[in-house]
């Protein structure tokens, strides 16, 4: 059982007061197990990558990072047993997550399993998400501290809605926060809040990931005014948007008083099958866990961000979000709430 003020990490529960500087949207290893069997990547060496991740986390710790949320969920090659080897040798608190990375469609097996489908019965996603949070992931005993879903350019497809409904149900049962991979260019943040709200998820328990890809301050203010937290979480992805422009947007929102509803991160990984290490070194050299403390925080300070601002975004906000919170009385739950979105 998780007590008030605690959050589960790879090494067990810790007080949210002890999380310190927290990167709320990162990855350790992003993989594709089917590709590994059929089309191996010569850059993937498990022992070498574990060592590289341990070394990288130790360097991040030396720069002040104390906690990292690994948002690698199924659909991105999650392997908690392997990441546990990293966590055991790292001074940083690593936190796991559950959910499903499905930008448009789930694996074909889900198409025949679930309520009203060929193999009728409960939705297996419901059991998976709750088990990961309450008991542990894949027999490891490592319990998830966050739920992650996707609402990207493909929009609210039937499978995207199915994952969203299952995540909302798990949130209502456990109080674990929900982070959403969004596409700001197609205004998916607004859509995500609307859909989650129909399932009884309070915006204050939602993080709208990748909001920092947008420079539209008015649009971002509308999301913030809902009570949600926005993830300014892709620093280093300068092939998408340069860091100086990302910093400029954060500074504009700080001047408007929104420090209490932003979190900073990098969406980095020590290995990714999508953008492997050799590609990152050549095309995104700042896309790693040291970018925030080495480059971005000095840029923010130079632009007028105070130490109080930085503490709020990197320490206070993550601790508040990661603390499990009971769902308000009267929130819609159960089949009726799920049926609204079908």
Q: Would you mind describing this structure in some detail?
A:
Zn(2+) 2 binds at residues 148, 181, 210. Its cofactor is a divalent metal cation. Keywords: Hydrolase, Metal-binding. This is Phosphotriesterase-related protein. The chain has helices spanning 33-38, 46-62, 80-89, 124-134, 158-174, 188-198, 217-225, 243-255, 277-283, 291-302, 307-322, 334-339, and strands spanning 6-9, 12-15, 22-26, 29-30, 67-70, 93-99, 144-151, 178-182, 206-209, 229-232, 262-264, 271-272. With 342 residues, it is an alpha/beta fold. β8, α6 (188-198) and β9 form a beta-alpha-beta unit. The two termini are 33 Å apart. Mean pLDDT is 94; it is low at 328-342.
Topology:
Layout: E1 6-9, E2 12-15, E3 22-26, E4 29-30, H1 33-38, H2 46-62, E5 67-70, H3 80-89, E6 93-99, H4 124-134, E7 144-151, H5 158-174, E8 178-182, H6 188-198, E9 206-209, H7 217-225, E10 229-232, H8 243-255, E11 262-264, E12 271-272, H9 277-283, H10 291-302, H11 307-322, H12 334-339
Parallel strand pairs: 3-5, 4-12, 5-6, 6-7, 7-8, 8-9, 9-10, 10-11
Antiparallel strand pairs: 1-2
Helix pairs in contact: 2-3, 4-5
